[in-house]
Predict the structure.
Amino acid sequence: MAIALIPFLYVISTALKDTNSLFSYPPDWIPSPIYWGNLRSLLQDQPFVRWTINTLFVSGAVTILKIWFDSAAAYALAKMDFYGKRSLALILLLSVAIPIAALIIPLFFVVRYLGLLNTYWALILPPLANPLGIFMARSFITAIPDSLPASARLDGASEFTIYRKIVLPLIRPGIVVLGMFTFMLQYTSFIWPLIAVQDSSRQVLTVGISSLKSAFLPDWGLLSAAMLLAAVPITLVFLAVQKTFVVNDLSGALRE
Amino acid sequence: MPTGTTPAIEMIQVAKSFGDTEVLQPLSIAVAPGEFMILLGPSGCGKSTILKMIAGLEDLSDGEIYVDGKLVNYVRPKERNVAMVFQNYALYPHMTVRDNIAFPLRQLKRPRLSRSEINQRVLSAAEIVTLSDLLDRRPAQLSGGQRQRVALARAIVRQPAVFLMDEPLSNLDALLRAEMRTSLLEMHNRVGRATVYVTHDQIEAMTMADRIVVLEGGRLQQVGTPHDLYDAPANTFVARFIGSPQMLLLAAEVGPALDVEFEGVRLLPDCTDGLQAGRPATIGLRPTGLRVVDDGSPGHLSGTVRRRDYLGSDCFVEVELDRGRSVQARADPARDRPPGDTVALAIGGEAAHLFDDRGVRVAGLCPVVP
């Protein structure tokens, strides 16, 4: 626990120090006096708020769309019968193994061909193709007994109704996990946003923060303040949803 | 389709295979309107598969299924006009009892039901299964029997042509099970629709069914009323599967006079069609038809009591016969028959059956008094 906390505390400490006291020896863990200049400079001189809004917008959009598409695809793979289901699942599974580095150049050409470079779409659409979420969602849906969708089918429900009204509510905790996982992955994604968007007004936090680092004299106080503030939204999101990290609640659905 | 009254369900040469594995051999069954038919057999005999094929949840490999006179082989489950109660209730746990029951009605598109109409039908279905005061609870807040009744109400509310029930009582305790059996039959009589009910419990089948279909290893063994199955089992499988205690099966040989001999007692078949002297055969004895009597007389078996099972209203004793074989027989529960007692056994009229060398029932047997 301490090993995990020390770097984090060091970042907080660094963010609240001026450049002179930053390099004092022995280092002071508790800044005295507290220096707010780094945070002020970040919020006033840099488009930090814009980057945060961009990041939250892109991560939120990717999360919502991925939850929708991945869980729907997972429902089809887990509970529906159709020709080629096994082959499709195998192809999706194999595509998980392709490293992102191998995809970046062809992806860049596709996005450029579509005229989406420097747009939010360039940041939102490509992550949707990652099939990992489908397999996560499938594992939650597989836990639902086949008799529930079968019963709903006999009750006259369409497959979409079964997915929306029976399956989605039952895998809510799993959906939260998938959402949190997707949100964090997107929030911290760096390589693709760096390539896809050069316009500073559309940049996300990871790319924005890296641009604060000059080649010769990094401003560690400013960088630490940026990292500290960048961690706030994701921490709040995590705290908001942590209560729903429980297993699928099927109590009462089946006989015990 | 046959002429006359249209069966609620008719299966014609229906078969099912998974790849090369044949799980159900071609079988034909017709369920009359309002009939309570039970599919009975041990686990893996294909009874649930039949139910799923009628419901449309499983495709047929061969044959035709008609529901209410309409061929449904290629009809989607929701359009077959059948309702199914699943083995594990299959209630929607995030919905209240009211929403569970209303779910099928809310899926109706043409005609779409008004909210008040749905409410009225939900209340009426809940009343049939005595759930009216539990409508706002969730399934997790109900007992096993109450959950089962919610599943029944959800089936009733659609007013389907046919009810399908897949071992609905199999996990309830004995008392609740007996209570639910009565409730189910009351509901069936009230609703008056044909019901196909799957169970592996022969007591459930004998007490509830109008007719029973006995299956084993994907093969139809016999279709008949509980009386037919008990009094004239089609073969040795049905003979052993129906009745408690089980029928005793003993190897024998058809004698020159087309009779069989068992422990010195000659037994004469009531029908000799197809019997051939010298052929191996099987004698079936129902313990319920073997009666312990005080005095032995010609035509009676004799032996020594080895064990006594007192059941209150009934009593069965295990008797070791003079030539060493053991049989179970019914004794007067008021009379004490301690182990070691020498007793005589009278073979009752319906107690003995003769099966040929393929295990098919040929005739009933009567003891010959010399």
